[in-house]
Write a structure and sequence with these properties.
single chain, 159 residues, mainly alpha, two-stranded antiparallel ribbon, 7 helices, 3% strand, GPI-anchored protein LLG2-like, LORELEI-like, signal, LLG1-like
């Protein structure tokens, strides 16, 4: 009976840890694409974004990404600094978060259309975001030591 209960605790622990591993640490390339209003999009209406991008502070972008040259490193670093805290919302293609954010970026920064989409690409998954939360606290990621300690606790509990 004790072994069966301990095994169930281990399984619950494993799925809890796996849940933390699924958090997003990138901004997908799909967030950069323009999703027009043609054809079937009326049937696929997007939900309104829960983030208020209208009242965000865009000075991080407008101070580091200036024309007419628009330096790629400065612009992309500023975009990541601004957008990475909202990566989960921007990657949710069922909402209009990405298009709303880029509308306000272009409004406040007066950037040419597609500037960030053409300039800021890091890989097939999009921009890599640092592994920290906006408040500066580290994101909890399952690592081998966490799994080892859980296994050791289980072993000590069994014997």
């Amino acid at each position: 009976m004790g072994l069966n209960q301990s095994f169930m605790h281990l399984i619950v622990f494993f799925f809890l840890v796996a849940g933390f591993a699924s958090s997003s640490t990138h901004i997908s390339n799909g967030a950069f694409e323009s999703h027009g209003t043609a054809g079937r999009s009326l049937l696929q209406a997007k939900k309104a974004c829960s983030e208020d991008f209208e009242h965000k502070n865009y000075t991080i972008l407008t101070s580091k990404c200036k024309g007419p040259l628009y330096p790629a490193k400065g612009c992309c670093d500023a975009l990541k600094e601004f957008a990475c805290p909202f990566a989960d919302k921007l990657n949710d293609l069922t909402t209009d978060c990405a298009s709303t954010m880029f509308s306000y970026i272009n409004l406040y920064g007066k950037y040419p259309p597609g500037l960030f989409a053409n300039m800021c690409r890091e890989g097939k998954e999009g921009l890599e975001c640092p592994e920290s939360t906006p408040s500066g606290m580290a994101v909890i990621k399952p690592t081998l030591p966490v799994l080892k300690s859980g296994f050791l606790v289980l072993l000590f509990h069994l014997f």
